[in-house]
Amino acid sequence: MHVEVYPDSEALAHGAAAHFVRLAAVAIVEHGRFSVALAGGSTPEAMHRALASEAFAPLVDWERLHVFWGDERCVPPDHAESNYRMARETLLDGVPVPARNLYRMRAEIGPEAAADEYEAALRAFFGADGPPRFDLVFLGMGDDGHTASLFPGTAAVHETARWVAAHHVAKLGAWRVTLTPAVLNAAANVIFLVAGAHKAARLREVLHGPYQPDALPAQVVKPAAGRLLWLVDHAAVA
Question: Second label for 22, Cα 20 to 30 Å away, from 109, 147, 173, 230?
């Protein structure tokens, strides 16, 4: 595990974009494509806008990019809370990623059906012999220590067989569809993006406290044969 600290959220967004560009170039040279799972939230949103800017967009071979999502709310794709909508409006509408290379979680069809459909899509893209090996997975961390839609006290935190899980999150009163630890921990690179003083206490618990994934699900992310990188701003490590 490595931690990089940036002076503020803007510098963090640009640092994350720089890692995206570098890892995309490496993956495309090595195997001709770049597979990435995006995260929702305000910090990834800032990174998306940086990637779509004139400073970064020309540096990516967007035709070879394959975009997936780490989790999704069970809402239509144009809903204000849709992770897909956020990524489309802040990044994908501004760069030439082929539509065929976008793999959206269709959570509006129902959580269980969406989870089954997305796992089938992962198996078709990566092969069914083992968990998919994403070139890069972006994750955030909530105030409660959750990541993707792995929330404290939910069974999905310990899922090892399924690649995609659908579950009802009682504290939210809502259903979520999420990649499971089996997928997150098979990635070549996992990057957490964490910003803000309101995350500082929880971040310290996740990074330096005892291992208790039922209370702090972000701790379950430990790639077995990949690199784990935390990109944080100064406020978050206060």
Answer: 147
Total number of domains constituting the chain: 1
> For residue 231, is it within any domain?
no
Query: 3-state class of 84 per DSSP?
Result: helix
Q: Give the domain extent around 10.
A: 2-224
Residue 236 lies inside a defined structural domain of this protein = no
User: What tens digit of pLDDT does each residue of 45-96 get?
Assistant: 999 999 999 999 999 999 999 999 999 999 999 999 999 999 999 999 999 9
135 CB-contact burial (10 Å; exposed 0-12 / middle 13-18 / buried 19+): buried
CATH of residue 97: 3.40.50.1360
In a domain, residue 235? The reply is no
Mapping DSSP to helix (H, G, I), strand (E, B) and coil, where does residue 164 land?
Answer: strand
Residues 2, 20: Cα–Cα separation, whole Å = 16
User: How many angstroms separate the CA atoms of 47 and 9, rounded?
Assistant: 9
Backbone angles phi, psi at 149, to 5 degrees: -115, 40
- The whole-model pTM stands at 0.97
Q: Is residue 49 part of a domain?
A: yes
Task: Write the pLDDT tens digit of every residue in 200-216.
Answer: 999 999 999 999 999 99
